[in-house]
């Protein structure tokens, strides 16, 4: 596992965006896995700037988002589909047919999980997977559990996760209780993984990911057995692992 500690959030975002831009330049048909949340917003801003300045071309890229809330459609401003349009896809030249996000409004959610897994299988494996990390160690919406669930599935969101996302919704009761998420096996099949974290409130989870037991009770711990995983952190998120660097 490689660990890059950057000066601050801006540098973390820039580094991650440059990493993506370089990967796409080297392999124009890169298949990329993308997260939502507050962490990647700066990275997406940087990517849009790189695109506008002619440094990267997304014309042959295929993107798979990690997850989507159950019950929210594309048009819902709280959906991750809307988030991706607002922060990235609305400003770059990725062909709409190459954008894949689970359908949170599918009538048959099990069939939707199978469909999503099947397209990843056809177009994948994912070349470059970008991850954030939750305060309970979740990656995508893979919440702590008694087992590592390999494939795309429906996840019950923990109260902690729902509260962490409350800032985007009017009230706690408006936050969906379930999400469709890419599974840990599919994430781990990615050729390269980059995990981003910033801020003091992520220092404990970074420490636990790097030093704690590998267990489904702390899903991010599985990244320790990936052969090409890089953490890009700011100083604060790296605050409890400094003596190990
Ligand atoms: P955040 O979410 O970027 O909003 O902290 C990360 C996550 O839950 O994966």
Which term fits the overall shape?
A: globular
Distance between the termini: 11 Å
- The overall average pLDDT, rounded, is 97
Number of helical segments with 4 or more residues: 7
H and E string: EHEHEEHEHEEHEHEHE
The count of β-strands is 10
Reported for the largest beta sheet, the result is: 7 strands, parallel
Helix content: 25-40%
Low-confidence stretches: none
Give the neighbour order of strands across the main sheet.
1-10-9-6-2-3-5
Oligomer: single chain
Radius of gyration, in angstroms, nearest whole number: 17 Å
Q: Percent of residues in beta strands?
A: 15-25%
From the helix content, strand content and strand pairing, which structural class follows? alpha/beta
Enumerate the distinct ligands.
2-phosphoglycolic acid
Q: What would your notes on this structure say?
A:
The protein is α/β, with parallel strands linked by helices. Helices cover 30% and strands 17% of the residues. The protein has seven helices and ten strands. The chain has helices spanning 9-26, 41-52, 80-87, 109-123, 159-164, 184-188, 203-211, and strands at 2-6, 31-34, 62-65, 67-69, 99-100, 128-131, 153-156, 178-181, 192-197, 229-234. The chain has a seven-stranded parallel sheet with strand order 1-10-9-6-2-3-5, sandwiched between helices. Helix 2 links the parallel strand 2 and strand 3. Helix 1 (9-26) crosses helix 2 (41-52). The longest helix has 18 residues, at 9-26. The mean pLDDT is 97. Bound molecules: 2-phosphoglycolic acid. Residues 37-39, 132-134 line the site of 2-phosphoglycolic acid.
């Amino acid at each position: 596992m490689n660990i890059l500690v950057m000066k601050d959030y801006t540098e973390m975002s820039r580094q991650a965006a440059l990493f993506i831009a370089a990967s796409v330049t080297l392999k124009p048909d890169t298949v990329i896995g993308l997260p939502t949340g507050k962490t990647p917003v700066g990275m997406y801003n940087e990517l849009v700037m790189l695109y506008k300045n002619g440094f990267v071309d997304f014309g042959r890229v295929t993107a798979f988002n990690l997850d989507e809330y159950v019950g929210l459609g594309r048009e819902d401003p709280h959906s991750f589909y809307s988030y991706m349009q607002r922060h990235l896809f609305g400003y770059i030249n990725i062909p709409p047919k190459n954008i894949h996000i689970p359908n949170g409004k599918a009538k048959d959610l099990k069939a939707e999980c199978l469909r999503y897994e099947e397209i990843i299988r056809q177009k994948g494996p994912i070349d470059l997977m970008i991850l954030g990390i939750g305060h309970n160690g979740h990656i995508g919406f893979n919440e702590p559990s008694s087992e590592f669930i390999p494939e795309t599935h429906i996840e019950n969101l923990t109260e902690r996760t729902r509260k962490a996302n409350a800032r985007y919704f009017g009230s706690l009761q408006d936050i969906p209780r379930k999400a469709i998420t890419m599974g840990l096996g599919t994430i781990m099949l990615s050729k390269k993984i980059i995990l981003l974290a910033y801020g003091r409130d992520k220092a404990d989870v970074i420490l636990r990911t790097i030093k704690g037991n590998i267990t489904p009770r702390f899903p991010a711990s599985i990244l320790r057995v990936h052969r090409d995983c890089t953490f890009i952190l700011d100083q604060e998120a790296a605050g409890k692992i400094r003596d190990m660097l």
